[in-house]
Amino acid sequence: MAPTIPFETLEPLLLDYVGYTPMANATGAPAMSVPLTWSAAGLPIGSQFQAAPGEEAMLLELAFQLEQAAPWADRWPEMSVEI
After folding, report:
1. DSSP code per residue over 37-60
2. What's the CA gap between 13 and 9, in Å, rounded?
3. What was the pLDDT predicted at 28?
4. Mean pLDDT throughout 50-72?
5. 4 secondary structure, DSSP code
6. Considering only CA atoms, which of 58, 68, 13 is closest in space to residue 32?
7. Is residue 76 very low, low, confident or very high in pLDDT (cuts 50, 70, 90)?
8. What CA–CA distance (Å, rounded) separates 30 from 49?
């Protein structure tokens, strides 16, 4: 993913790697990823949400509601580092 790779070569590689984020990145629309479930190994599995420009408050309210329904703030994978 070096800047020296031609765009025509880089684009398909990038879309395979981060296929769901370019629209939010390109438009500047607010987006968030929250851990809504956990793998059998105890690792978080995130879901991404995006809103219209200027709707950051709606995303924060959604995150609050989702955390109330399925708290995740105190969940840590077995191999993790708390800063």
Report:
1. EE-TTS-EEEEEEE--TT-HHHHH
2. 7
3. 80
4. 93
5. T
6. 58
7. confident
8. 9
Q: Measure the CA–CA gap between 55 and 58, rounded to whole angstroms.
A: 5
E strand or H helix at 35, and its extent? strand 31-38
* SS3 of residue 65 by DSSP: helix
- Cα–Cα distances (Å) from 22 to 50, 72, 82, in that order, read 11, 26, 29
Distances (CA, A) of 41 to 1, 45, 61, 79: 30, 11, 29, 10
Task: Tell me if 44 sits within 8 A of 75, measured CB to CB.
Answer: yes
Q: Which of 28, 26, 80 is nearest to 53 (CA)?
A: 28
Q: What is the pLDDT of residue 44?
A: 85
